[in-house]
Amino acid sequence: MTTATAGRDAGAELVAEGGEWRSPLYADALQQFGRAADALGLDDESRVRLREPRRSLTVNFGVRMDDGIVRSFTGYRVQHTLTMGPTKGGFRYAPHVSLGECAALAMSMTWKCALLRLPYGGAKGGVRCDPSALSVAELERVTRRYATELAPLVGPDTDVPAPDVGTGAREMGWFMDTISQRLGRPVPSVVTGKPVELGGTAARHAATGLGVVDVIDALLERRGEPLSGCRVVVQGLGNVGAVAAQRLAELGALVVGVSDVDGGLARATGIDVRAVLRWKAAHGGVDGFPHADPVARDAVLELPCDVLVPAAVERQIVAGNAERLACRIVVEAANGPTTAEADAILAERGIEVVPDVLANAGGVAASYFEWVMGQQHYSWDPDELRRRLREQLRTATAEVIAAAERLCCDLRTAAVASAVEHVARAGLSRGLHP
User: Fold this and answer.
1) Is 239 part of any known ligand binding site?
2) Architecture of domain 3-187
3) Which residues form the Glutamate/phenylalanine/leucine/valine/L-tryptophan dehydrogenase C-terminal domain (predicted)?
4) How confident is the model at residue 16 (pLDDT cuts 50, 70, 90)?
Protein backbone atom coordinates (compact mmCIF):
# COMPACT_ATOMS: atom_id res chain seq x y z
CA MET A 1 0.00 0.00 0.00
CA THR A 2 1.38 3.41 -0.96
CA THR A 3 1.61 6.31 1.47
CA ALA A 4 -1.06 8.19 -0.50
CA THR A 5 -3.39 5.16 -0.41
CA ALA A 6 -2.79 4.70 3.31
CA GLY A 7 -3.58 8.35 3.88
CA ARG A 8 -6.82 8.08 1.88
CA ASP A 9 -7.84 4.92 3.78
CA ALA A 10 -7.09 6.64 7.10
CA GLY A 11 -9.14 9.63 5.97
CA ALA A 12 -12.10 7.44 5.05
CA GLU A 13 -11.94 5.65 8.40
CA LEU A 14 -11.81 8.90 10.33
CA VAL A 15 -14.77 10.35 8.45
CA ALA A 16 -16.75 7.27 9.44
CA GLU A 17 -15.81 7.80 13.09
CA GLY A 18 -16.49 11.53 13.13
CA GLY A 19 -19.75 11.63 11.25
CA GLU A 20 -20.81 14.99 12.60
CA TRP A 21 -17.97 16.62 10.64
CA ARG A 22 -18.67 14.78 7.39
CA SER A 23 -18.17 16.98 4.33
CA PRO A 24 -16.01 16.76 1.18
CA LEU A 25 -13.70 19.48 2.47
CA TYR A 26 -13.25 17.73 5.83
CA ALA A 27 -12.55 14.43 4.07
CA ASP A 28 -9.78 16.21 2.12
CA ALA A 29 -8.36 17.63 5.36
CA LEU A 30 -8.32 14.19 6.97
CA GLN A 31 -6.60 12.65 3.98
CA GLN A 32 -3.90 15.30 4.17
CA PHE A 33 -3.49 14.65 7.89
CA GLY A 34 -3.37 10.90 7.28
CA ARG A 35 -0.60 11.21 4.69
CA ALA A 36 1.42 13.53 6.94
CA ALA A 37 0.95 11.25 9.96
CA ASP A 38 2.05 8.23 7.92
CA ALA A 39 5.11 10.07 6.61
CA LEU A 40 6.09 10.95 10.18
CA GLY A 41 5.25 7.55 11.65
CA LEU A 42 3.10 9.50 14.12
CA ASP A 43 2.13 7.73 17.33
CA ASP A 44 -1.48 6.60 17.85
CA GLU A 45 -2.10 8.95 20.79
CA SER A 46 -1.25 12.03 18.76
CA ARG A 47 -3.42 10.83 15.88
CA VAL A 48 -6.37 10.44 18.22
CA ARG A 49 -5.85 13.88 19.72
CA LEU A 50 -5.41 15.74 16.43
CA ARG A 51 -7.78 14.10 13.98
CA GLU A 52 -10.98 15.74 15.24
CA PRO A 53 -11.83 19.22 16.56
CA ARG A 54 -11.71 19.77 20.27
CA ARG A 55 -14.80 22.00 20.50
CA SER A 56 -17.63 23.18 18.30
CA LEU A 57 -20.61 25.43 18.75
CA THR A 58 -23.67 25.56 16.49
CA VAL A 59 -26.01 28.50 17.08
CA ASN A 60 -29.38 29.52 15.69
CA PHE A 61 -30.42 33.10 16.29
CA GLY A 62 -33.13 35.45 15.17
CA VAL A 63 -32.44 38.78 13.47
CA ARG A 64 -35.03 41.43 12.76
CA MET A 65 -34.75 42.40 9.10
CA ASP A 66 -35.31 45.86 7.67
CA ASP A 67 -38.92 44.99 6.79
CA GLY A 68 -39.64 44.07 10.41
CA ILE A 69 -39.75 40.29 9.88
CA VAL A 70 -37.57 38.12 12.13
CA ARG A 71 -35.39 35.67 10.21
CA SER A 72 -33.41 32.77 11.70
CA PHE A 73 -29.70 32.35 10.92
CA THR A 74 -27.36 29.45 11.68
CA GLY A 75 -23.77 30.06 12.73
CA TYR A 76 -20.79 27.96 13.77
CA ARG A 77 -17.50 28.16 15.61
CA VAL A 78 -15.05 25.24 15.64
CA GLN A 79 -11.83 25.05 17.69
CA HIS A 80 -9.48 22.33 16.50
CA THR A 81 -6.86 22.18 19.26
CA LEU A 82 -6.32 24.01 22.54
CA THR A 83 -2.76 22.77 23.03
CA MET A 84 -0.81 25.67 21.55
CA GLY A 85 -2.54 28.69 23.12
CA PRO A 86 -5.68 30.62 22.17
CA THR A 87 -7.34 29.46 18.97
CA LYS A 88 -7.20 31.64 15.86
CA GLY A 89 -9.21 31.76 12.67
CA GLY A 90 -11.64 33.82 10.67
CA PHE A 91 -15.40 33.76 10.42
CA ARG A 92 -17.14 33.92 7.06
CA TYR A 93 -20.55 34.85 5.69
CA ALA A 94 -21.55 32.64 2.75
CA PRO A 95 -24.50 30.50 1.64
CA HIS A 96 -22.51 27.25 1.90
CA VAL A 97 -21.10 27.65 5.43
CA SER A 98 -21.44 24.37 7.35
CA LEU A 99 -20.07 22.57 10.38
CA GLY A 100 -17.95 20.28 8.21
CA GLU A 101 -16.46 23.19 6.31
CA CYS A 102 -15.59 25.02 9.53
CA ALA A 103 -14.06 21.85 11.01
CA ALA A 104 -11.86 21.34 7.95
CA LEU A 105 -10.70 24.96 7.89
CA ALA A 106 -10.07 24.95 11.65
CA MET A 107 -7.75 21.95 11.23
CA SER A 108 -5.99 23.75 8.38
CA MET A 109 -5.57 26.82 10.61
CA THR A 110 -3.83 24.68 13.23
CA TRP A 111 -1.25 23.55 10.68
CA LYS A 112 -0.90 27.06 9.28
CA CYS A 113 -0.19 28.58 12.69
CA ALA A 114 2.18 25.77 13.68
CA LEU A 115 4.09 26.07 10.41
CA LEU A 116 4.83 29.73 11.22
CA ARG A 117 5.42 28.81 14.90
CA LEU A 118 2.64 31.10 16.08
CA PRO A 119 1.28 30.38 19.59
CA TYR A 120 -2.21 29.46 18.39
CA GLY A 121 -4.44 26.51 17.74
CA GLY A 122 -6.73 26.62 14.73
CA ALA A 123 -10.35 27.77 14.67
CA LYS A 124 -12.91 28.76 12.07
CA GLY A 125 -16.51 29.93 12.08
CA GLY A 126 -19.20 31.60 10.10
CA VAL A 127 -22.85 32.33 9.46
CA ARG A 128 -24.78 30.70 6.64
CA CYS A 129 -26.16 33.62 4.67
CA ASP A 130 -25.76 35.58 1.45
CA PRO A 131 -24.13 38.85 2.56
CA SER A 132 -24.83 40.47 -0.82
CA ALA A 133 -28.57 40.08 -0.15
CA LEU A 134 -28.40 41.86 3.22
CA SER A 135 -28.36 45.61 3.89
CA VAL A 136 -25.57 47.16 5.93
CA ALA A 137 -27.96 47.47 8.89
CA GLU A 138 -28.93 43.79 8.59
CA LEU A 139 -25.28 42.73 8.37
CA GLU A 140 -24.55 44.67 11.54
CA ARG A 141 -27.42 43.00 13.38
CA VAL A 142 -26.30 39.56 12.16
CA THR A 143 -22.73 40.25 13.29
CA ARG A 144 -23.74 41.52 16.72
CA ARG A 145 -26.09 38.59 17.30
CA TYR A 146 -23.40 36.13 16.17
CA ALA A 147 -20.85 37.80 18.48
CA THR A 148 -23.29 37.58 21.38
CA GLU A 149 -23.80 33.85 20.77
CA LEU A 150 -20.03 33.29 20.63
CA ALA A 151 -19.28 35.41 23.70
CA PRO A 152 -18.73 32.40 26.04
CA LEU A 153 -16.03 31.03 23.70
CA VAL A 154 -14.10 34.05 22.41
CA GLY A 155 -11.55 36.33 24.07
CA PRO A 156 -7.95 37.56 23.69
CA ASP A 157 -6.63 34.51 25.56
CA THR A 158 -9.17 31.93 24.39
CA ASP A 159 -10.29 32.38 20.77
CA VAL A 160 -9.49 35.31 18.45
CA PRO A 161 -11.60 35.61 15.25
CA ALA A 162 -10.57 37.49 12.12
CA PRO A 163 -12.02 38.36 8.68
CA ASP A 164 -12.71 35.69 6.10
CA VAL A 165 -14.94 35.28 3.04
CA GLY A 166 -17.76 37.84 3.13
CA THR A 167 -16.42 39.71 6.17
CA GLY A 168 -13.88 42.46 6.70
CA ALA A 169 -12.69 45.24 8.97
CA ARG A 170 -16.21 46.63 9.35
CA GLU A 171 -17.58 43.36 10.73
CA MET A 172 -14.57 43.01 13.04
CA GLY A 173 -15.30 46.44 14.46
CA TRP A 174 -18.91 45.45 15.18
CA PHE A 175 -17.79 42.16 16.70
CA MET A 176 -15.23 43.85 18.94
CA ASP A 177 -17.72 46.48 20.08
CA THR A 178 -20.32 43.85 20.97
CA ILE A 179 -17.90 41.90 23.16
CA SER A 180 -16.58 45.12 24.69
CA GLN A 181 -20.11 46.28 25.55
CA ARG A 182 -20.80 42.95 27.27
CA LEU A 183 -17.64 43.24 29.38
CA GLY A 184 -17.94 46.96 30.05
CA ARG A 185 -14.44 47.77 28.76
CA PRO A 186 -12.60 47.91 25.42
CA VAL A 187 -11.27 44.52 24.30
CA PRO A 188 -9.34 45.30 21.11
CA SER A 189 -7.52 41.93 21.06
CA VAL A 190 -10.72 39.88 20.86
CA VAL A 191 -10.49 40.07 17.05
CA THR A 192 -7.87 40.98 14.46
CA GLY A 193 -8.36 42.60 11.08
CA LYS A 194 -10.08 45.56 12.74
CA PRO A 195 -10.18 49.11 11.38
CA VAL A 196 -6.91 50.94 12.05
CA GLU A 197 -8.77 53.39 14.29
CA LEU A 198 -9.73 50.51 16.60
CA GLY A 199 -6.26 49.05 16.91
CA GLY A 200 -5.97 47.30 13.57
CA THR A 201 -2.98 47.55 11.28
CA ALA A 202 -2.86 48.81 7.71
CA ALA A 203 -0.58 45.89 6.87
CA ARG A 204 -3.34 43.32 7.49
CA HIS A 205 -5.36 44.05 4.36
CA ALA A 206 -2.56 43.19 1.95
CA ALA A 207 -0.72 40.63 4.09
CA THR A 208 -2.14 37.43 2.60
CA GLY A 209 -1.61 38.49 -1.01
CA LEU A 210 1.90 39.80 -0.30
CA GLY A 211 2.67 36.60 1.58
CA VAL A 212 1.69 34.55 -1.48
CA VAL A 213 4.27 36.49 -3.49
CA ASP A 214 6.92 36.01 -0.78
CA VAL A 215 6.39 32.25 -0.92
CA ILE A 216 6.55 32.16 -4.74
CA ASP A 217 9.73 34.25 -4.70
CA ALA A 218 11.36 32.05 -2.03
CA LEU A 219 10.45 28.83 -3.88
CA LEU A 220 11.73 30.06 -7.24
CA GLU A 221 14.91 31.33 -5.58
CA ARG A 222 15.55 27.88 -4.11
CA ARG A 223 15.08 26.45 -7.61
CA GLY A 224 17.49 28.99 -9.10
CA GLU A 225 14.76 30.68 -11.15
CA PRO A 226 14.03 34.42 -11.28
CA LEU A 227 10.58 35.78 -10.53
CA SER A 228 11.03 38.40 -13.23
CA GLY A 229 9.68 37.05 -16.51
CA CYS A 230 7.81 34.20 -14.83
CA ARG A 231 4.38 33.65 -16.47
CA VAL A 232 1.61 33.70 -13.86
CA VAL A 233 -2.16 33.14 -13.90
CA VAL A 234 -4.25 34.39 -10.96
CA GLN A 235 -7.74 32.93 -10.55
CA GLY A 236 -9.79 35.28 -8.37
CA LEU A 237 -9.29 39.03 -8.03
CA GLY A 238 -10.62 39.47 -4.52
CA ASN A 239 -8.50 40.89 -1.73
CA VAL A 240 -5.83 38.18 -1.92
CA GLY A 241 -5.69 37.66 -5.67
CA ALA A 242 -5.72 41.35 -6.55
CA VAL A 243 -2.86 42.16 -4.17
CA ALA A 244 -0.83 39.15 -5.33
CA ALA A 245 -1.36 39.87 -9.03
CA GLN A 246 -0.40 43.52 -8.64
CA ARG A 247 2.71 42.75 -6.60
CA LEU A 248 3.81 40.00 -9.01
CA ALA A 249 3.53 42.44 -11.91
CA GLU A 250 5.52 45.05 -9.97
CA LEU A 251 8.32 42.51 -9.46
CA GLY A 252 8.49 41.78 -13.18
CA ALA A 253 6.37 38.65 -13.47
CA LEU A 254 4.21 38.35 -16.59
CA VAL A 255 0.56 38.01 -15.53
CA VAL A 256 -0.96 36.21 -18.54
CA GLY A 257 -4.41 35.42 -17.09
CA VAL A 258 -6.81 36.65 -14.41
CA SER A 259 -10.44 36.01 -13.50
CA ASP A 260 -13.21 37.01 -11.12
CA VAL A 261 -16.73 35.72 -10.48
CA ASP A 262 -17.96 37.18 -13.79
CA GLY A 263 -15.34 35.92 -16.23
CA GLY A 264 -11.69 35.69 -17.19
CA LEU A 265 -9.04 37.45 -19.25
CA ALA A 266 -6.00 36.15 -21.10
CA ARG A 267 -3.11 37.80 -22.91
CA ALA A 268 0.09 35.89 -23.70
CA THR A 269 2.20 39.07 -23.73
CA GLY A 270 0.96 40.10 -20.28
CA ILE A 271 -2.02 41.89 -18.77
CA ASP A 272 -1.88 45.37 -17.25
CA VAL A 273 -3.07 44.37 -13.77
CA ARG A 274 -3.56 47.93 -12.55
CA ALA A 275 -5.74 48.71 -15.56
CA VAL A 276 -7.82 45.57 -14.96
CA LEU A 277 -8.34 46.47 -11.32
CA ARG A 278 -9.41 50.00 -12.29
CA TRP A 279 -11.85 48.52 -14.81
CA LYS A 280 -13.19 46.08 -12.23
CA ALA A 281 -13.72 48.88 -9.71
CA ALA A 282 -15.59 50.96 -12.28
CA HIS A 283 -17.66 48.20 -13.89
CA GLY A 284 -18.06 45.65 -11.09
CA GLY A 285 -16.08 42.91 -12.86
CA VAL A 286 -13.49 42.13 -15.51
CA ASP A 287 -16.03 41.48 -18.28
CA GLY A 288 -15.59 43.87 -21.17
CA PHE A 289 -11.99 44.85 -20.41
CA PRO A 290 -10.75 45.86 -23.86
CA HIS A 291 -7.03 45.03 -23.67
CA ALA A 292 -7.15 41.24 -23.19
CA ASP A 293 -8.98 38.26 -24.64
CA PRO A 294 -12.12 37.14 -22.78
CA VAL A 295 -12.15 33.53 -21.53
CA ALA A 296 -14.53 31.58 -19.35
CA ARG A 297 -14.05 32.01 -15.62
CA ASP A 298 -13.02 28.38 -15.07
CA ALA A 299 -10.99 28.16 -18.28
CA VAL A 300 -8.42 30.57 -16.88
CA LEU A 301 -7.12 27.68 -14.75
CA GLU A 302 -6.04 25.89 -17.92
CA LEU A 303 -4.04 28.72 -19.50
CA PRO A 304 -0.36 27.95 -20.22
CA CYS A 305 1.85 29.45 -17.50
CA ASP A 306 4.69 28.74 -15.11
CA VAL A 307 2.77 29.46 -11.89
CA LEU A 308 -0.97 29.09 -11.36
CA VAL A 309 -2.39 30.93 -8.32
CA PRO A 310 -5.93 29.80 -7.41
CA ALA A 311 -7.09 32.65 -5.17
CA ALA A 312 -10.87 32.20 -5.25
CA VAL A 313 -12.67 29.57 -3.17
CA GLU A 314 -12.19 25.91 -2.28
CA ARG A 315 -12.37 22.88 -4.64
CA GLN A 316 -11.55 24.66 -7.92
CA ILE A 317 -8.94 22.20 -9.17
CA VAL A 318 -10.70 18.83 -9.35
CA ALA A 319 -10.29 15.48 -11.08
CA GLY A 320 -12.22 16.83 -14.06
CA ASN A 321 -9.77 19.63 -14.91
CA ALA A 322 -6.46 18.58 -13.30
CA GLU A 323 -5.39 16.78 -16.49
CA ARG A 324 -5.79 19.99 -18.48
CA LEU A 325 -3.73 22.32 -16.27
CA ALA A 326 -0.80 23.75 -18.24
CA CYS A 327 1.38 25.07 -15.41
CA ARG A 328 4.53 23.88 -13.65
CA ILE A 329 3.60 25.05 -10.14
CA VAL A 330 0.28 25.58 -8.34
CA VAL A 331 0.40 28.03 -5.42
CA GLU A 332 -2.76 27.79 -3.32
CA ALA A 333 -3.66 31.33 -2.32
CA ALA A 334 -7.22 30.18 -1.51
CA ASN A 335 -8.16 27.68 1.20
CA GLY A 336 -8.56 24.14 -0.12
CA PRO A 337 -8.68 24.91 -3.85
CA THR A 338 -7.35 21.48 -4.84
CA THR A 339 -9.18 18.22 -4.13
CA ALA A 340 -7.36 15.06 -3.05
CA GLU A 341 -8.14 13.40 -6.41
CA ALA A 342 -6.71 16.38 -8.29
CA ASP A 343 -3.66 16.37 -6.03
CA ALA A 344 -2.87 12.80 -7.08
CA ILE A 345 -3.26 13.66 -10.78
CA LEU A 346 -1.00 16.71 -10.47
CA ALA A 347 1.63 14.64 -8.67
CA GLU A 348 1.59 12.05 -11.46
CA ARG A 349 2.04 14.86 -14.00
CA GLY A 350 4.99 16.35 -12.09
CA ILE A 351 3.18 19.58 -11.25
CA GLU A 352 4.36 20.92 -7.89
CA VAL A 353 1.68 22.17 -5.47
CA VAL A 354 2.51 24.73 -2.78
CA PRO A 355 -0.24 24.11 -0.20
CA ASP A 356 -2.57 26.69 1.28
CA VAL A 357 -1.22 26.18 4.81
CA LEU A 358 2.01 27.77 3.59
CA ALA A 359 1.00 29.91 0.61
CA ASN A 360 -1.72 31.97 2.28
CA ALA A 361 -0.30 32.07 5.80
CA GLY A 362 0.56 35.77 5.53
CA GLY A 363 -2.86 36.77 6.82
CA VAL A 364 -2.59 34.90 10.09
CA ALA A 365 0.98 36.13 10.55
CA ALA A 366 -0.22 39.73 10.24
CA SER A 367 -3.11 38.92 12.58
CA TYR A 368 -0.61 37.66 15.12
CA PHE A 369 1.30 40.93 14.94
CA GLU A 370 -1.93 42.87 15.45
CA TRP A 371 -2.89 40.66 18.40
CA VAL A 372 0.53 41.15 20.03
CA MET A 373 0.28 44.93 19.57
CA GLY A 374 -3.18 44.89 21.15
CA GLN A 375 -2.01 42.80 24.08
CA GLN A 376 1.03 44.99 24.67
CA HIS A 377 -0.67 48.32 23.79
CA TYR A 378 2.22 49.01 21.45
CA SER A 379 2.41 49.70 17.72
CA TRP A 380 4.95 48.73 15.04
CA ASP A 381 5.23 50.72 11.82
CA PRO A 382 4.07 49.09 8.55
CA ASP A 383 7.62 48.68 7.20
CA GLU A 384 8.63 46.70 10.29
CA LEU A 385 5.54 44.50 10.00
CA ARG A 386 6.26 43.87 6.32
CA ARG A 387 9.85 42.88 7.09
CA ARG A 388 8.75 40.49 9.85
CA LEU A 389 6.12 38.96 7.58
CA ARG A 390 8.58 38.36 4.74
CA GLU A 391 11.11 36.75 7.08
CA GLN A 392 8.54 34.40 8.62
CA LEU A 393 7.22 33.21 5.28
CA ARG A 394 10.64 32.71 3.74
CA THR A 395 11.73 30.74 6.81
CA ALA A 396 8.60 28.60 6.68
CA THR A 397 9.11 27.95 2.95
CA ALA A 398 12.67 26.80 3.57
CA GLU A 399 11.48 24.48 6.37
CA VAL A 400 8.82 22.93 4.15
CA ILE A 401 11.30 22.30 1.34
CA ALA A 402 13.72 20.74 3.84
CA ALA A 403 10.94 18.53 5.25
CA ALA A 404 10.00 17.39 1.73
CA GLU A 405 13.59 16.35 1.13
CA ARG A 406 13.89 14.64 4.54
CA LEU A 407 10.62 12.73 4.24
CA CYS A 408 10.82 12.17 0.47
CA CYS A 409 7.33 13.54 -0.07
CA ASP A 410 5.43 16.33 -1.83
CA LEU A 411 5.27 19.88 -0.47
CA ARG A 412 1.72 19.53 0.88
CA THR A 413 2.56 16.46 2.91
CA ALA A 414 5.80 18.09 4.04
CA ALA A 415 4.05 21.27 5.18
CA VAL A 416 1.36 19.44 7.12
CA ALA A 417 3.90 16.97 8.53
CA SER A 418 6.15 19.78 9.78
CA ALA A 419 3.16 21.40 11.49
CA VAL A 420 1.74 18.13 12.83
CA GLU A 421 5.10 17.19 14.31
CA HIS A 422 5.31 20.52 16.14
CA VAL A 423 1.76 20.31 17.54
CA ALA A 424 2.09 16.61 18.45
CA ARG A 425 5.24 17.24 20.44
CA ALA A 426 3.54 20.08 22.29
CA GLY A 427 0.57 17.84 23.08
CA LEU A 428 2.75 15.03 24.41
CA SER A 429 4.70 17.55 26.49
CA ARG A 430 1.52 18.79 28.11
CA GLY A 431 0.05 15.34 28.63
CA LEU A 432 -3.61 14.70 29.41
CA HIS A 433 -5.64 16.21 32.25
CA PRO A 434 -6.83 14.66 34.46
Assistant:
1) yes
2) 3-Layer(aba) Sandwich (3.40)
3) 201-431
4) very low
